[in-house]
Amino acid sequence: MNQPRERWSSKTGFILAAAGSAVGLGNIWKFPHMAGQHGGAAFTLVYLVCIVVVGMPILLAEFSMGRSTQRNPVGAFAKLAGNNNWKWVGLLGVASAFVILSFYSVIGGWAIKYSWMALSGQFAANAATPDGPQLAYDAFISKPVEPILWHLAFMGMCVLVIVRGIKSGIEKTSKTLMPVLLVILLILVVRGLTLEGAGEGLRFLFEPKWGDLDVQGVALALGHSFFTISLGMGTMITYGSYLDNKSDLLRAGIWVVVLDTGIALLAGIAIFTAVFALGQDPAGGPGLIFVVLPSLFPLMPGGTFFAFLFFSLLLVAALTSAISILEVVITYFIDEKGWGRVRATYTFGGIIAVVGIFISLSFGNFNIIAPLTDLSFFDFMDGLSSKYMLPVGGLFTALFVLVKWGVPNFIEHMNVGSSGFPVPAKAVMAAFIVSALVVVYIIFESVIDLFG
Ligand code: PFF
Predict the structure, then answer these.
(1) Could you tell me the CATH number of the domain that includes residue 79?
(2) Which of 102, 241, 399, 448 qualifies as a FRET site for 315, CA 20 to 30 Å off?
(3) Distance 323 CA to ligand 1 centre (A)
(4) What separation in Å is there between the alpha carbon of 30 and the centre of ligand 1?
């Protein structure tokens, strides 16, 4: 007989788990380097608008779909649609989880390595020569074995959380780690703001220079709004499916978006104040936090301590997101295929870990997809998920609410458990239409970019 579905033990537990999913490498690694390369404040503003206009409606749709069906993404689409055609959208989500976690975990592994390097004082040694940090980074990521071991360690942590289930695994981990994350981040923000010349960094992040924002930046900001709130692949459907009818979904959604956005901005403040105060280039690209920051920490008082805090922050953020990605796959196999949690977790944790090994190798001499494209396996998987898979998943979620589930049904369900904030149906419909149109634009831009 089927066991009763597990549940979050409290509303706060659910909000922290969902916020833990949202806040991750996207906030602390990707957002700052994208903003750094695409116009700073101008990029930030586009990003904020996207979060509210595109992200919020889809986030609420996912929560509602999960809670009303008590199913994984595939089961949720199938049950609400009453047929099997829409289940493909859910399957696309499960596939996206495979793609994302395989590269996410490699970077999670780097965070463990860099926390260790910070603690053991290696940043100071590397920073003794001007291109020391860059050389150390290049040498580390291209090694054939070491980064793989860190990646496996990171995947191992995810597996250990997920086998314990919703309450004692995901919820307990998020409830412990999210407050830790906030405290660390606040300490780093204060450190950044008290550096001489920090104002430059704030101006960069908050004073828009529209001329610096290109079309590619706009498309990236849109795509990133999905990635950063974990949308378009059913993560929030999965987490919503462990809720009972007492939670206020609108309130939870607002909390998740505010925490996610607030933490991305705080990470931006911590990073850019230091980058500008110490006279570095903000457009450092993906190496911004692994090359530029390690060269800066040794220059500030207490550098070893702050460096260790920063990379622990990255690790904590990555871990609470990675578990949510793995949970999408696991819930699918439990609900739809009748697998036990332990078997599903070890099997799919293992398979994803193997794909991740090839991603890690693509930073060195072995790129498994070299015969197909010029991109590295890492860039391919990153681009495939954030430029195509998540936006397509999000588009179909918006369309699903509009044409299949129906806006009135969605609103009726979303309002269960709420204190009754009246949401006008027309406004909701408009929000989903705008959201869908914007996503069509993102996909269009990505395709143009691909062939241009
Ligand atoms: N939101 C996470 C981040 O910003 O790093 C990444 C992510 C997690 C994407 C879960 C998608 C997902 F389903």
Answers:
(1) 1.10.4160
(2) 241
(3) 10
(4) 11
